[in-house]
User: What shape does this take?
Amino acid sequence: MAQVSTKSDNSNVGRSLVKAGASIQRRTVMHLPSLLFLLLATQLPFVYALWISLHAWNLMEPALGRPLIWFGNYANELFHDPAFWPSVANTAKLVFGALIVSVVLGTLLALMLHRQFRGRALLRTAILIPFLVTPVVSAVVWKNLILSPSFGLLDWVVRIFGGASVPWLSRFPMLSMIAMTSWQWTPFFVLVLIAGLQSVSDEVLEAAQVDGARRWTVWWRITLPHLQHYYEVAILLGTIFIFQTFGKTYLATGGGPGIQTTTLPYYTYKVAFQYWQVGQAAAIGVFGVILAIVFAQIMVRYFAQGTEGVE
Amino acid sequence: MRVRWKASILTSVTYFIVILFIFPAIWMLLTGLKTERAAYSSTPSLLFKPTLTQFALAWHSNFLFYLGHSVTASLVSTAIAIVLGIPAAYAMVFHLPKKASKNMLFFVLSTRFMPFAAIIVPLYIIFLHLHLLDTLQSLIIVYTAMNVPLIIWMARSYFMDLPVGIIEAARIDGCTPYQTLLRVAVPLSSSGLTASALLAIIFSWNDFFFAVNLTFTKSTTLPIMMSSFMSSESLFLAKVSALGVLIGVVPIVLGLYAQRHIVRGLTAGAVK
Amino acid sequence: MKKVLALMGATSLVGMGLAGCGTSTSGSGGKVVLTVATVNNSQMVQMEQLTKKVFEKKYPNIQVKFDTLPENQLRPKITEDVATNSGQFDLVTIGNYETPIWAKNGWITNLTPKFNAMSANAKASYKYSDLIKPVMQSLQYNHSTYAVPFYAESSMIMYNKAIFKKDHLVMPLHPTWAQIQTLARKANNPSQGIAGIVLRGQSGWGMNLAPLDTVINTFGGRWFNRHWQPRLTSPAVNQAVSFYTNLLQKYGEPSPATTGWQTALSLMSHGKAAMYYDATSEAGVLETPSQSSIAGNVGFAYAPVAKTSHGSHWLWSWALAMVKNSPHPNAAFKFMTWATSPQYLTLAGKTFGWANVPPGTRYSIYSNPHYQKAAPFAHITLKSIDTATPDSPTLKPVPYTGVQFVEIPQFSTLGDQVSQDVSSAIAGRISVKSALQQAQQQAKTLVNAQNTKGF
Assistant: This one.
């Protein structure tokens, strides 16, 4: 555990050497193949999508052709489509909601599993399972076996305690989605945070305890700051993946009731494959990308600052 | 004495919470062992006569056909992503100017943010013209594009962790960058790289969206088999649970094997 | 790590090789390979098995491959395929909503000339006139046939006889919606986990709008007047939608706004509901002991009515259509006429049991004594399908056809949006009145007399 921090010390030194001498910094083409591949595989379709987004293209009515309407689709989304802004808001709710639950629950579980006890390895292994179950399957299982007011486990528990059936998915649609998403992603946070906890140098902790610091103070002053970067990693990756959540919405709520669980990726799908408005869907997708880039920029910048702070 | 007592309570609580947390997965396994009728029961019971019918049914519905495609698509795409991503990550850490490196990282991550639904129609049309619809190649291309950012992100973390002195020494010894990468950097971060590879396999393995849109009959993968199990007019919970368990076995085994490595891999860079 | 990499390298080579082999579309030796997109209901899956066992033996030069998906995944996929002219499929399974629209778009082949060109023998054995009339009408465009039905359904009431007996209730053969409401109130028993009635509430035009539209029709409401002006805020529509939401909220299943037919069916089949108003085809599931705990105890009645019987029960069909640029039109026609022939129904009945024969397509199957015996709901099903009125779906004249949908391309968008408003109203988040005002607005934006020309 201490090794990790020594290592990073080393490399810090190393990196500053690099900066000073710039001896290793030679021109290279090693990054070009993957850059080229990503440009071809992701930007080619994206540019195509941009082009499509400037046209009115309804797949179901080929007779109408594909007239160029410039930014008509964009204007329509921003100013006329009553479902667009709610979808943006729902996306934010889902991502932030699931992140908050995963962070809190993940921290709690990580702390519990960081303790020394018999069977720790087994539990650490078991807790990962929800992260590894195919998301499509977990959506079906949650909808029919857990949250269903008639056949669900949760309902059964509620009834044992004398409560009445709760239609979770229709009364608390977004909360149910958040619960399902967090179930999948909490183990990932646990995994990362356990690693973080393990890398806190024992000597530092012991020193603090010798100094008579209280547990809470140690956690607040030493452990948590140390975990900061671990949280950042988990949150960044978590955001990327939770933002893309599609299968769960599709199978568990279909975006409803109304449009209460319709997120931007799901809405994009719906406009393209239920409304057949391919141009419109491309425009929504482009908004999604813009939103994501702004968000990623904030995160990467914050992340970069954090890195510099340590250096 | 009091401390030990307290500790054992805490341990029991830990056990309880973990079991509670993974209970939906346990429940899925149990449901896979039930009959369709028993699967829909309002008083869930742990005592039932288990049957392997559902597993047999899943197995005999051409499971191996789909399995082969899933294995090929996820392994090959991960292999290509590694071949592409690792040198890139290496260049970002040791060669590129800091600003260029950061820009590249940003670009790479931003490609992962695109809602998949936004590019599926363009992709469909592109693959149509390349005659790649319903081929494993199309899935491999898409999964590679999904996995390269992940590999770059993780490999970059490990390489940042390497002592620069060693890399420098290799260079002075006359190693080209590729030789240095293969002989020094990769062996030194092998466990982390294995972990990233496994994570990439798992993500491709679980993909549903691209597979359902880009494949038809010749290159369908396991999640598609899954959706063909959700019949439109009969009960399917037990069947789907059983198949879900079968599909889940691979990522679960891989994931559990890799868990230690994954932790290091994902966070090594963050320590810096 | 090296090992892992080496292994992956090896697999990738092998993988590419394998994938390369998979791309050849037609088999060796001049064998024709047909690709068919199917919905995965049990009858279609049985068709796959019979194709291997019987069809491919009879026509050794034709090999049939199936892409089997649930309805909501199938539709996007085949639309993508035909709209981009990508030619992955020879035959596609589409509904009677899609058929006229796809025909107008020139995506599918006119089958009438092919039927006319059949030999006298083939005509006699196919018995075109035996196909149920309203179903065939709904698969036509400009008086030509564009698809042949594999399976068809209407809607009816199914009820749990045990609950009815216990509560001393009697179901009339031709109930009214008012009677259904009374029965639902009396049978409703939430403390025992029993709903008075289960109905679809989940959004989607094929979900809650299917039963709701029949209620609107029979209450005398309509989507549009003759000039394509939306009529969704009219008193009749308001009354019907209020009735439906009220019925569901008071006596319906516990989570109506997210209940699709799937959940509704499982509730009914586990004795958790007294009544179920849904597709006639679900009767078969309810009567199958391995799937349903109420098998043998199910009663059937005609779809309830209010003001008019027009449009009180829906008409849906899954039909096989030939993609316009299929490279093997003759083989495709052979296959589609085989799968929808009277001989196929007999074959399916003998192989898989008579209760599982694809329902609703041919008159002759309903006079088959085996089928009558196996399917106690056969008579009501036939009568419901045969009396469906897609051409005059409600009391007043309308410019569209279709019972539980409006036969225009805009409906896939409009119907979905309106169904969302309805599910919000069912969840109690907005009032019926404001749901219908939103729906009216959406209809105004999407549909006008110009953009519906030709339907």
